[in-house]
Amino acid sequence: MAERDWAKYNEDLVRRGELLIDRDMMEAWRMELEEENRGKEGEPFHYPSSYMRFLATVRAIFHLPYRQTEGFVRSLARFIPGLPVPDYTTIARRTDRLEIDLDETLLRSNGPVTIAVDSTGIKAHNGGDWMTRMWRVRKGYLKLHVAVDVRTRQVVSMEMTTDEVGDGRMMRSLVEGAEGRVHVGRLLADGAYDSRENFSFLEERGIEPVIRVRRNSVPRSRGCYVRKRTVEEVLSLGRAGWSRAHGYGMRWAVEGLFSALKRIFGEHVMARKFANAARELLLKAAIYNSFLMAMYR
After folding, report:
1. Beta strand 208-211 with 268-269: parallel, antiparallel or unpaired?
2. How far apart are CA 268 and CA 67, in angstroms?
3. Which fold would CATH assign to domain 103-273?
4. Most buried of the four, 16, 25, 146, 292, by CB within 10 Å?
5. Where are the domains of the chain?
6. pLDDT in 10s for each residue of the chain, 297 residues
7. What are φ and ψ of residue 207, in 5° steps?
8. Pairing assessment for the beta strands 268-269 and 113-124 based on DSSP bridges
């Protein structure tokens, strides 16, 4: 194994903290604002979407409520003459309507990629009885379902559900979302995704399934030969041998992603509405993807 370049690794981590605003960027904001207001009915926008995305990024990284975000921009404006300072209600209203696109943050690959899928629980900042009543979740948390490119460690697809939705039910939508961005060649998943429906779906898509089957599985096809073949391989090679033969260990990439997201952004969402919570998590994934993109440059 090649020795890590620690100087470069440290610099990459330092660069994650850079939030750059210069006059050229501010000029681009003015041009963007003119374009967004062209033909708009009603009151025009006073701040461009990219500026709102910048403020949403600051808020996510530093875990700031909306009022403190306004205070942050006020302080920043002292050092950057001409920087506009929106009030906290404007920040809240505009950032809750942002369109977040993972496509803009992904490293492109010419060939098929291997993705790993899994889910994790996310707490609500104001949980308890309110969360149970308003979001109708039983266990006090939401579920974040993701698909990760195991080579780049970037999120290529993402869904949020309440806690009663099983992991296996979300595989189809995760794969469909990922295929809109990358060419999926293999999928790694644990036993929660072991079902004939999922194996058949991947076979129809031409995707190699590397799904750990349940321990009590027997090699019966019942219309799903690919799962039968997997069970036979596990019985022949043993679970450890099967894992080594198919690179199942690379599934750790998705576990590493969950750890990184929670260390950087915390284990909860600040949004009060379900749709806004989903958008908040998507923004955090896009920010993390951007961190990784900067490291590869």
Report:
1. unpaired
2. 19
3. Nucleotidyltransferase; domain 5 (3.30.420)
4. 146
5. 6-99, 103-273
6. 456 777 877 777 777 676 666 666 677 888 888 898 988 888 889 999 989 999 999 999 899 999 999 999 999 999 888 888 999 999 999 998 888 888 888 888 888 999 999 999 988 765 555 556 666 655 567 899 999 999 999 999 999 998 888 999 999 999 999 999 999 999 999 999 999 999 999 999 999 999 999 888 777 766 678 888 888 899 999 999 999 999 999 999 999 999 999 999 988 888 878 888 899 999 999 999 988 887 766
7. -105, 130
8. parallel
- Can you read off the two tokens belonging to residue 259? 């750890």
The single-letter code of the amino acid at 69 is: T
